[in-house]
C-alpha cells in the first residue's frame, strides 16, 4: 500500500498528496515545520517538538488551526496508519492558499501536512569513523533578519551552505554567525570536547535550539561531564579533543576533520562514543 499522507485532517496516497501552487508556503517559504523521530512505536520528545513548532508559528504570527493535543493525536495516527514504528515524521504548517503577493492576510486557512516515512541521513560508516566538514562562507542568518530559532520553511540559508559543503566533497558545513563565531551546521548543532568538558554555542550565537542538543546536554550532565554553553571560535574547534553534531535525523555524529584539519586523534573520541551509546539507550530498546 502506498504511503498515506495527512493533509488537513484527511489521508491521501503519496502520489495524490498535493497542495495548491498558490500556497504561500511554496510561493514565499511562509510556514514552519518540525522533524520528529519515532523509536519503537513511541514518538521521541513529542512535547518538545510541539512546543517548538508552536513557538516558530507564534514568531511568524501564524495560528496553527488545531490544539497541541490534536496535533499529537494526528502524528500518532499518521504513524499507525502507515505501520511505522521506527520512522521520521515531518510536520509542516503553511500560511495556506492565497493570491500572489507577500501579504499573509491573503491566506485564509493554514494548511497542516504530516508525512510519516523513514530517514537515514548518514551511512553507518560515518558513526564509526566520523564525518569531515568544512566552514561555509555563507554565514548563518542574522537573528535580526530571520531568527535561526524559527524553524521556518525558508531553509535557503542552510541550503546555500550545504551546497558549499558538497562542492568541497563534504556532507556537512559549519556555519558561523555575523560575528565570526561558530553557530551550527546546516541541519545539526555542534559540540566540542576539551580536557573532558563539553562546549557548545549558546542560544544567542544564532542557532536553532535543537531538541537533540538539549537531550545530549542532559545526558552528559547526568554522567557528571560538565557542559558549557559559550561562544566558540574556529580556533576552539581546530584545537578540540573531540567534536560531534546532534540532530533529530542525524542523532549524534562524530566529526573528525574540519577544513582539512584533523580533530583530536582523527577518530571518534571516548566522550562522543559514550554519548552515542547513552543516546542509543534512550532510543533503542
Ligand atoms: N540546526 C538546524 C538548522 C536544524 O535544522 C536542526 C534540525 N534538523 C537542528 C539544528 C537540530 O535540531 P533537533 O535536534 O531539534 O533536530
Q: Say which molecules are bound, naming each kind only once.
A: 4'-deoxy-4'-aminopyridoxal-5'-phosphate
Overall body shape:
globular
Radius of gyration: 19 Å
Biggest pleated sheet: 9 strands, mixed
For the residues shown, what is the average pLDDT?
97
Distance between the ends: 28 Å
Beta-strand percentage range: 25-35%
Helix content: 25-40%
String of helices and strands: EEHEEHHEEHEHEEEEHEHEEEH
Instruction: Tally the helices.
Output: 8
Poorly predicted regions are none
How many beta-strand runs? 15
Structural class: alpha+beta
Quick structural summary:
The protein is built from eight helices and 15 strands. It is of the alpha+beta class.
Keywords:
285 residues, alpha+beta, nine-stranded mixed beta sheet, six-stranded antiparallel beta sheet, 8 helices, 15 strands, 27% strand, globular, binds 4'-deoxy-4'-aminopyridoxal-5'-phosphate
Secondary structure elements and their pairing?
Elements: E1 4-7, E2 10-13, H1 24-28, E3 31-39, E4 42-43, H2 46-59, H3 68-81, E5 87-94, E6 111-117, H4 124-129, E7 131-135, H5 156-167, E8 172-176, E9 182-185, E10 189-194, E11 197-200, H6 211-222, E12 227-229, H7 234-238, E13 242-247, E14 251-258, E15 261-262, H8 270-283
Parallel strand pairs: 7-8, 7-14, 11-12
Antiparallel strand pairs: 1-2, 1-6, 3-4, 3-5, 5-6, 8-9, 10-11, 10-13, 13-14, 14-15
Residues 35, 158, 184, 187-189, 208, 210-213, 246-248 line the site of 4'-deoxy-4'-aminopyridoxal-5'-phosphate.
